[in-house]
Amino acid sequence: MKSTVVGSFPCEESSPSNFKDKLLNTFGAYDSYKDAIKDSVIAQLDAGVDIVSDGQVRDDMVSIFTKFIPGMKLEDGNTVVVSKIRKPTWEISINDLNYAKKVIKEYYGGKIPEGKGIKGIITGPTTIIHSSRIQSFYKNKEDAIIDLAHSLKFEVDAIAKKVNPEYIQVDEPFLSTGMVDMKVAKEAIDILHEGLDVPLAMHVCGTLNNAFKDIAKFNVEILDMEFAGNDVNLDVLEKNANLISNKKIGFGCVDSSVNEVDDIEDIDSLVSKAIDIMGKDNLILDPDCGLKRAPKDVAFDKLKLMNQIKDKYN
Ligand SMILES: [Zn+2]
């Protein structure tokens, strides 16, 4: 049984403090988020997390991608679709992921140990389109979703080839809302998955009693869902475990919606039930969702507690 995070981690943007950084800042080349990535990776490793993220420190989960995608533009912080969606102008997460990987390497004295590593994370095409406004070109959301999937496929392939992550996760929180055409959402994931030689995961938060049967059919190796701040999903998992016998479960076992450290006995009992349903080797423990909104020390203690439970059962 391994552990991971869903993605985001609390961070502070830094300002240039030494001569070199001040000089870089003058030329617009100072990166105020680099220290945040480093801090976030080290905190995750200190807490015992096996597969870490870069902390998703730069922006919200939509605009972090859409600001580099032709056909989409930002208006007052919201994404608007203005013309045909095309290939990103930039390999959006490669530099940050490779920097995070370098931090992991240094942390372990030069070589990343077996079982530790990084994952790439992208926000899914269905979620991005459903949180954007279509102003022109597309008559419906579904055509935009498919074009965006082809666009994001460039990013997925770049991550697989240039970062060599443990796996790549697609965040699709909208799939539990009932607003989504599941057939199109599935087709979009198929596009991202095509020819990929690293495992693909899909994170869906929310209550899954209506959506689980559809989600179980998606072509991904790992399904990541919330079980701590949710009293329905464990029951849904238990009743439908036969539908996902070829998949692993990212098992959200600490509550990311509450800014205090979870009760150790609650997590223990939740994880023990999950082991009974899925088997230890098919579980990856993580928080329900991103931890961005938690105070740093609380986020750290939540991860530490989760890994304490992992170690107990390993
Ligand atoms: Zn989530």
Uncertain parts: none
Under the CATH scheme, the architecture is: Alpha-Beta Barrel
Return the domain count.
1
User: What is the tally of helical segments?
Assistant: 11
Number of strands: 11
Bin the helical content: 25-40%
Largest sheet: 8 strands, parallel
CATH top level is Alpha Beta
Gross morphology: globular
Strand percent estimate: 15-25%
How is this structure best summarized?
With 314 residues, the chain is of the alpha/beta class. 39% of the residues lie in helices and 15% in strands. Zinc ion (ZN) binds next to loops.
Structural notes for this entry:
This protein starts with a strand and ends with a helix. The longest helix is centred in the middle third of the chain and has 22 residues, at 141-162. It has 314 residues and is an alpha/beta fold. The chain is globular, with a radius of gyration of 19 Å. α2 packs across α4 (94-107), α6 (141-162) runs parallel beside α7 and α10 (264-278) packs across α11 (296-313). The chain has helices at 19-26, 34-46, 63-66, 94-107, 125-130, 141-162, 182-193, 212-215, 233-240, 264-278, 296-313; strands at 2-3, 51-52, 72-75, 78-81, 117-123, 133-134, 167-171, 200-204, 222-226, 248-254, 283-287. It has a single domain (2-313), classed as Alpha-Beta Barrel (TIM Barrel), CATH 3.20.20.210. The mean pLDDT is 95. The protein has an eight-stranded parallel beta sheet with strand order 1-11-10-9-8-7-5-2. Strands 3-4-6 form a three-stranded mixed beta sheet, with no helix packed on it. The site of zinc ion has 5 residues, from loops. Residues 6, 173, 203, 205, 289 line the site of zinc ion.
